[in-house]
Each structure stands twice: as C-alpha cells, then as structure tokens.
Amino acid sequence: MGKGRTYGQLMNIVKNNPDIAVYSLTEREMDFVELLFERETGKSRHGSGSWISTGFYSLVLAFHLCDEIHMYGMVSPQHCQNPQTADNDTIPFHYYDPNGLDECTMYKSQEYKMMGGHRYITEKEVFQKWKERRNITFHYPSW
Q: What phi, psi does 106 have (nearest 5°)?
C-alpha cells in the first residue's frame, strides 16, 4: 500500500497507541477488490472511469475479519430511485458538511460521471446481492 500522508498519520497513531488495531489492504488485495468489482458489476473500474468507494473496500475487508456484519447508515440501491424518497432527501452525503450535497444528489451525480466518479448505486446493487449470500444485516435504514 502507498506510503501517503494518511498512511503516515495512521502509523503515527498506532505507534502512540499500541492498543489500537489498524487494518489496511495490501496492493495485492486492492487489485483483488478491483477484480471483484469487475466480476460483480461487469464493469472495469478503469474502463468505466470510476473509483471504488471506501465502503466497498471496507465491506470486503470485513468479509475477511467478521463472521457477521452489521451496516448502519447505508441506504438501499432503490432509495434514490423512488421519486418520493429522492425528492425529499435532505440527508447530507457527508455528515460533517450539512451544507453540501444531499445523499441522492451525490449518488446520481457520481453514478453517471464519465470519468472519476464513484458508482455508489452500482456498488449498493452488489451489496444487495451479497446480502443474500453472506451474513450482512443493514440497519437504520434497514433493507
């Protein structure tokens, strides 16, 4: 994994707090996640000009660490397709930026971006398939 600023900060936290466990993916594991994304969606991350979200990486990491997974604060893939829900969605995409884009606006703007977007809705469709095959429970909202 790259040795960027965030990595350095994490290593400093671990050094100063030896009781904290930090997990990260190796480059090989990140390559695996990209192949998994392609297998599950039929789209190459590079070919579709997209980035894989931290939620996708985190869920794959959780598969390796947990027998049972509980997800909170993640809406279903249908959430933003329902006009009543999408039109009334005022939940900010980033909790720390209440004046930023709401969740559905962010998902839709990223899903159809030609280059550099996240495919949040596509990823959630994958999560829905995984929910059927793995021990994942989506809470608040439940789906």
A: -65, -50
Taken in order 79, 72, 101, 60, the sign of the CA dihedral is negative
**Residue 88, amino acid:** N
User: DSSP string covering 65-92, please?
Assistant: H-SSEEEES---TTGGGSHHHHHT---B
- In this prediction the pTM is 0.80
- pLDDT, tens digit, 9 for 90 and up, residues 94-140: 889 989 998 888 999 999 888 888 999 999 999 999 998 999 999 98
| Cα–Cα distance, 39 to 31 (Å, whole number) | 12
Q: How far apart are the first and last CA of the chain?
A: 33
Tokens of 97: 């930026």
User: Is the CB of residue 49 less than 8 Å from the CB of residue 112?
Assistant: no
From the list 18, 15, 45, the residue with the least C-alpha distance to 30 is 45
Element (H, E) at 121: helix 120-133
- Residue 63: closest CA among 135, 140, 14: 135
Q: Report the distance separating Cα 116 and Cα 53, nearest Å.
A: 11
